[in-house]
Amino acid sequence: MYPRLMIDINKLRSNLEGVARITKEQGRCSLMIVTKGLCADREMVKLVCQHPAVDFVADSRIHNLETYACRARKAGKQTVLLRLPMACEIEKVIKFADISFNSEVATLRLLNEEAAKQEKIHKVVLMIDLGDLREGIFFKNEEAVLNTVSEILSMKNLELYGIAVNLTCYGAIIPKYDNLSQLCDWAEKIETKFELKLQMVSGGNSSSIYLIEKEELPEGINNLRLGEAFLLGNDTAYGTKLPGATDDALILEAQIIELKEKPSLPIGEVGVDAFGQKPYYEDRGVIKRAIIAIGQQDTDISSMTPLDSGIDILGASSDHMILDVSQSEKKYEVGDIVKFKVGYGAMLKTATSGYVEKVYS
User: Fold this and answer.
1) Which residues belong to any copy of the Alanine racemase N-terminal domain (predicted)?
2) Catalytic site residues?
């Protein structure tokens, strides 16, 4: 059935080994693999949990951790909740996550109370915001950071496992030696003041891995959290392909449901489309237009690349995608399949959509 996301498990394995070589052998960091990109799909999680190079398995959704916490722990991996916990999910966080990332004292208190009920010691990683302006205590607010550390250390059922930063995802701030060095400075300051040793200083996600190749990752960083690098084979700072990895482990396939020659410009007054945007149309004259059975509800057209270089994506509504196939050397027919490489946005939406089948090859 179509549309479907074709997943080459051997290429994913190769990607995993590629990022492991960079992260662990070259960078001397522990490896945390993030599973949310494929919505913690079972076969992908199985691959990750079985791989000896993986130290931590992480997701931003406690629902996903719930589906594989037992498997990961049996394989000797620690489970990590990346998104700051919601108050409504505290019980599950303690049950299914060995470690959670945090920035709010109120949430930490709830975690401590629940951990006591479940008779557990829960590990927490304190998020420091170095300027990307997503989660974390702002790095210039020394009093807030130190007070929060003090609070954590006073809680009997929490362990301060480490500190971490997130970059690129919101503010698009690229990790550099200078800003990640500030995280290392914070680690040293916390260890000195409170006479302890942090187990983890996590220097970000797939946007930080390029620093290892350039030999610019600060020495104090000892962990990276990799999702896109593993699944799509590239760093997310500059989008460059990683050595030993491939960008075509995931291929989206969709079927043509209409194929007709029509004008390239709509006729009549242009308003807004189904998503409230006013579109722009290029006058290409009469073109051969193919409609495939997938749309904005199921994917992100801005991060899809047709494998056939003669195809242009013109646009999409919720359930239909319009292609210009005029320049293709292939003579398409209704029922034919069009294939695409996917970027991060398209991968997330297709993996989450119940209308897109996942098929392993």
Assistant:
1) 7-229
2) 36
